[in-house]
Amino acid sequence: MNSYALDRIDKETLMGDVCHLDAIVDLNTYPIADPGSAQWRACVKRIRAWLADDGCSVLSGFVKPDIFDQLQDESASVAPAAYRKIETVNAYNIALDAPLPDGHPGLIQFERGNAFAARDQIPRDHIIQQLYSSPIFQSFIAACCGIPVVYPMADSLAGLVVNVLDPGRSHPWHFDTNAYTVSLLTQKADKGGTFEYCPNIRTSGDENLSAVKQVVTGDGGDLVRRLELQLGDLQLFKGRFSLHRVAPVEGGRARLTAIFAYCEQPGVNGSVSRTRQLFGRGLPAHEVAERELVRADALMD
Ligand SMILES: O=C(O)CCC(=O)C(=O)O
Ligand SMILES: [Fe+2]
Fold it and tell me: What is the pLDDT of residues 161-210, one digit of tens each?
């Protein structure tokens, strides 16, 4: 790895970035602003070990407690703008009439009740926008994922979203399109809204349909782990291989998470159909992406 890809960025930008991060991140516990230092390496090593073992790593108290109120208020302010459309889906997010053999877990259908506020609906000065765009944060994320560099998406909708789960709603069992997902809890539900996941239940070469079927039919048993995330916790998660869901939210308050989507190549946009499904609209850039879609693996979704 080169100097954590920061050599591409001028010094002034980096110093400004450190100042921003110092106001947001608990840099004593998570020394991300000092790339390559012994503390930074130790922190990255710990996170990579968790990810390899569990498919998930939670950085508790990543955000400083003195900005919890701001973090929560900001995401609560964009939540009303989220595109709300209750949909019927399957764990692979493929067409409900896709030809699948009898007994296939993709035939099990769920109600997807979460809604996404898109990046262009989140003010540029919000904490989550600053984190998403931070070169130092990106460099730390790349190292944790074991890749030389990550890029923010070119997509001005899907790159950064607030995932809104209103009371009574859930985000059902699914796999993500990205290998890694980075998210930050910005508002906790009063009750419910537990994150549940099955570490590395499939690989790029093996769908492991029987285990997936067990989980999606409610018989997951020991395959399922549960996480009670707290406000300000950063979560790194291997969502392409680990089936996961957010259980129904109870009480009077929505559960909110910021989801940071990064790619290994610059210039990536989502596909037209997925963009319309998630946000109820698309942009010209999505038409181009549709024609030039590059696949990273041969999995079905
Ligand atoms: O909001 C969460 O904690 C999980 C969201 C998720 O799984 C997703 O957006 O794919
Ligand atoms: Fe997901």
Answer: 999 999 999 999 999 988 889 999 999 999 999 999 999 999 999 999 99
Distance CA 55, CA 46 (A): 13
For 151, other C-beta atoms within 10 Å of its C-beta total 16
Does 195 sit in the ligand 1 pocket, CB within 6 Å? yes
| pTM tops 0.90 | yes
- Residue 128, ligand 1, Cβ within 6 A: no
Question: Closest residue (by CA) to atom 7 of ligand 1?
Answer: 245
Ligand number nearest CA of 238 is 2
pLDDT value of position 295: 47
Does the beta carbon of 233 lie inside 6 Å of ligand 1? no
Domain chopping of the chain, boundaries: 6-291
Q: For 6-291, CATH number?
A: 2.60.120.620
CA distance 286 to 292: 10
The ligand 1 atom nearest the CA atom of 195 = 3
Q: Residues near 61 by Cβ (< 8 Å), separated by ≥ 6?
A: 26, 29, 230, 232, 233
Does ligand 1 come within 6 angstroms of the Cβ of 183?
yes
Strand partners for 187: 256
